[in-house]
Amino acid sequence: MATALERSGVEELDRLKHRVATLEQLFEVYERTAIEQANKLEQLLEERKRAERELQKHKLHLEELVAARTAELRRANEQLKIDIAAREQAEQELALKAQELARSNADLEKFAYVASHDLQEPLRMVASYTQLLARRYKGKLDADADDFIGFAVDGANRMQQLIQDLLSYSRLTTRGKALELTETRRACDIAVKNLRRAIEESGAKVAVDDLPVVLGDVTQLSQLFQNLIGNGIKYCSDREPEVRVAAKTNGPEWIFSVRDNGIGIEPQYFERIFQMFQRLHTRKDYPGTGMGLAICRKIVERHGGSIWVESQPGHGSTFWFTIPRAERTQP
Amino acid sequence: MNSRTIEILLVEDNPGDARLTLEAFKEGKVLNNITIMGDGVEALAYLRRQGHYAGAVQPDLILLDLNLPKMDGREVLAEIKADEQLKKIPVVVLTTSEAEEDVARAYSSHANCYITKPVELEQFLNVVQSIDSFWLSLVKLPSQ
Prior knowledge:
The complex is a heterodimer. Chain A is an alpha+beta fold. In chain A, 65% of the residues lie in helices and 13% in strands. Chain A has a domain of 146 residues: Histidine kinase-like ATPase, C-terminal domain (Heat Shock Protein 90). The termini of chain A are far apart. In chain B, α1 links the parallel β1 and β2. In chain B, α2 packs parallel to α3. The interface between A and B is small, with 12 and 11 residues.
């Protein structure tokens, strides 16, 4: 019995041992797996921590960036405010300057008017009495006296012409009439009529194309045409003078042209000729005060346009000027 | 045609202008005697023979400038034409003013004619010549 028992005990023990061994094996596997899993988990945790750190770093960087950018923007904003203030000040100064300029311009015009007007009276005395001297005593004194009287008369006459022109120049703004619908053809006809003598004497041909209706001052426009056509006749070459007046539309404005076949103008004088008292010739060759084209420019500018010249010496000149189109155009 | 000496009153404040008119009349055909008054008040006193002008001769023609000291030509003209004794005397307004307003006002005050003094001597002489031949020769003036 005992043996059987012992046997069965041993068997049982063996089974148990086997079982333990199996369990140990299993345990080993589990343990290994557990360790592996734990390692993996740790790794993952590590990675996650790293990622978090990374994220934190990025976040910090981003915050820095935002802060930097905000500061930059703030600075830019401040600068902009300073700029705006400076600009506003500059604009104010500019407005003030413009005002001053307008005032000094008005003063100058008034001065020119008063000066030329008040100079006329004493000058009339000088001119009248030198002329009276010439009339009464020419050829009765000696040759020198005749010369001296001649120079005095000539000087007084020229000064009279200058002052007359200066006065008409300053009158363009001080005495200008309000602009109204005006047939430029009529203004041109008046000019041609006034130039009749010069046209007859020179044998000039003056052709006038269709001209529009504009907002204008008929007196001033006829003076403008008269000066331009008159120049075309005056500055003529050997040929008989030919002058053609025309107009064409160009968007919101009319472009007028006065073309001649005269001596022409060198390009370097294209600007200068429109300035006051500027002349390109001696009085002996072509008399004048140098005010004609300055008057033209002032008239055109008063009508809201501009004036310029195209020319080639020996091949005539074309004077162009613009006047804005009137609301109602052709009659 | 008048043959007696024509009496002219020239009312002009500028001695240069006055003399020039005088010289211009010298070149004319008609015998004349020109008296010059330098301002409006004096001119009226002369015409009305007031004060030391008691012995003044009544002029046949008055040449009147508009811009005068004390009383200007416009007022002088109005006074003359409102005066029964003086209104028959022809008044020639002779001035540098080209203002339409002055022209209209002068005729409204019964000026007999209005002449703008030309700047050029030659033209001025022509104007005086015309005054001479029209007012002093052609026209029949009222007897004194």
